[in-house]
Amino acid sequence: MSHENEYFPNMVTMLELIWGDGYMAPGGPKNVARLLRGLDPAGKRILDIGSGIGGPAFEMARTHGATVVGIDLEQPLVERAEADAAKHGLADRCSFQTVVAGPLPFEDNAFDIVVSSGAFTQIADKRGILGESFRVLKPGGSLSCYDWLKSDGEYSEDMHYWFKVEGLTYAMETLDSYAKLLADAGFVDVECDDASAWYRQEARREYELMTGDLYPRMVELLGQTDADHFVEDWRAMLVVIDKGEMRQGYSRGRRPA
Fold it and tell me: For the residues of the chain, what is the DSSP string, one character each?
């Protein structure tokens, strides 16, 4: 079955307004630095799963000295990333390709590092993507990811409402389940860190910006209807963040040498 694109142009515009040029997940360059912490990325070949419009890949190349291959399910995002790589003079160090769900189109032991920021959140087959990440890593290589997570138990009505407003596919895990999934895939030195307190503050700041100084610019770029839609999206997200139902975390593991 062909992939149905979920990130429409106004959504991409909104995410860049709130998270920075080229970024479709929070944290910007600081998030990239945290993903790569201690991994010595200079001169390494990195696979960015769910690379979106390329912001993290460009940061990994420019600031951290890596060569990056980005993959995404959505062709318009890949086309934008390719164009921006050329515009920034990074086409020799950042390449992008559209993929289909399932096995990764790379040989075994092809990458030093695999990263993902927010993409695993939307992949139902966590065992499959973690197993593929393990396969394409060189022995001794590392996987590092940032994800939106859930708390234990069933989704509340507030979570279901936020999902409806978001309009995106989510397949959330708990942080504890990530640790088990990584170990089951063969990773060692597994680390899972809760970042919920950080993003709770960030999301509040973002909402205040959207309902204040940023709002006229949102209306100008997105139109009144979409601007108000995204304000409601963030309000609904804050509800589930403040309740501790929607959480955030960093997970990593290493393929044994």
Answer: -PPPP---HHHHHHHHHHH-TT-SSTTHHHHHHHHHTTS--TT-EEEEET-TTSHHHHHHHHTT--EEEEEES-HHHHHHHHHHHHHTT-TTTEEEEE--SSS-SS-TT-EEEEEEESSGGG-S-HHHHHHHHHHHEEEEEEEEEEEEEE-SSPPPHHHHHHHHHHT-------HHHHHHHHHHTT-EEEEEEE-HHHHHHHHHHHHHHHTTTTHHHHHHHH-HHHHHHHHHHHHHHHHHHHTTSEEEEEEEEE---
Nearest Cα residue to 148 out of 162, 132, 133:
162
Q: Average the pLDDT over 168-173 and give the result.
A: 92
- Where does the pLDDT of residue 144 fall: very low under 50, low under 70, confident under 90, or very high at 90 and above? very high
Confidence of residue 4 (pLDDT cuts 50, 70, 90): confident
- φ/ψ (deg, to 5) at 70: -105, 140
Whole-number pLDDT of residue 69: 98
CATH topology classification for 9-254: Rossmann fold (3.40.50)
Per-residue tokens: 221: 């770029």
Q: What is the pLDDT of residues 71-97, one digit of tens each?
A: 999 999 999 999 999 999 999 999 999
